[in-house]
Amino acid sequence: MKNPWFEHKRRYYKPVSTYGWLVTAAAISYIGFSVIRITGQSLKLNETLMNISFQVILTGVIFILIAYFTQKR
Q: Model confidence over 38-64: pLDDT tens digits?
């Protein structure tokens, strides 16, 4: 890529452009709103933790894929 969005560090991807920061902010805000929505709808703690864990894992996988394909090589 000519203009990479992320730079790969040892264990994480560091945003190096505006688009990288926008993707990072979008992922964090999506997780935050998902937690608020799930805690408002769930009745049991087990259900809440299971749904939040699923959302965090799914968002993390999508974030890592975006960062991998737009990283500095």
A: 888 888 888 888 989 999 999 999 999
- The CA dihedral of 64, 65, 70, 73, to the nearest 10 degrees, is 80
DSSP of the chain: --S-SEEE-SSSEEE-SHHHHHHHHHHHHHHHHHHHHHHHH--SHHHHHHHHHHHHHHHHHHHHHHHHHTB--
Over the Cα atoms of the chain, what is R_g? 15
Contact predicate 25/33, CB 8 Å: no
CA 25, 31, 36, 41 torsion: positive or negative?
positive
pTM over 0.85: no
CA–CA gap between residue 25 and residue 31 (Å, rounded): 10
